[in-house]
Specification:
The protein is an alpha+beta fold. The chain has a single domain (35-242), classed as Bactericidal permeability-increasing protein, domain 1, CATH 3.15.10. Helices cover 32% and strands 41% of the residues. Strands 1, 2, 3, 4, 5 and 6 form a six-stranded antiparallel β-sheet that branches. Helix 1 (2-17) runs parallel beside helix 4 (207-234). It is elongated, with a radius of gyration of 19 Å. The N and C termini lie far apart (39 Å).
Length: 246
Amino acid sequence: MKTIVLAGLIVTIFGVTFAHELPDFIHVCKKNDPNLADCIKASVNSLKPKLKTGVPEYKIPSLEPLELDELVGTSGGNIKLMLKNVTVHGASNFTLLKLKANLDTLNFVVELDLPHLSIEGNYDVDGRVILLQIRGSGPMTGDFTNCKALVKLQMQVSKRSDGENYLKLTELKTRISVGGGKLNLRNLFGGDPVLGEAVNTAINSNFDSFMKEIKPSIESAISNTFTGITNGILQEFTYEMLFPES
């Protein structure tokens, strides 16, 4: 779940940093800047107060809290996972550790750190993880610490019917690490209190193993959700608007 938040931060960073006709609190990075990566990092850091409350006129959601309507992921047929009406606290307290930008290949690599995230929402899960059959739907809460993410974004330029060039996100890959965490899934197995408590205890007692198995499903949810969000932002601006020469 925390991977979804990390990817959301990446989308926000690039969606705002390169938009055109920006207010004076946003620093624009030029395409021919020899220190483009450093420029983007400085721009993101200056934007953090605005990202906390959101920038509605640029379709950028608030990061505090960050609200996600629906996230769907699958993991090789082992488990199906859907999250709905998710509220995340702590997403605005991110640190941008590293950033690489290549405008020739339109490839971006970002490393983020989030010290603490808490989430609440609704889940629907069915499958097998850490040798346990898990099935149920209902409210959920989670608490995660020392989260780090390495996110790779691949974009391409395509010409649309209006004759203009537009950017499109074609691939988003994320690798994460989590220092620790705790989940509480209510109403497992139709509300069976014995099975529900046993599964929650097993998950939290084997949290690292649980995250290792559930990670592909979360990464699938990231791709499904944030690729669409990113492209929704990008379609508002031509390539030349997003990356001015000077």
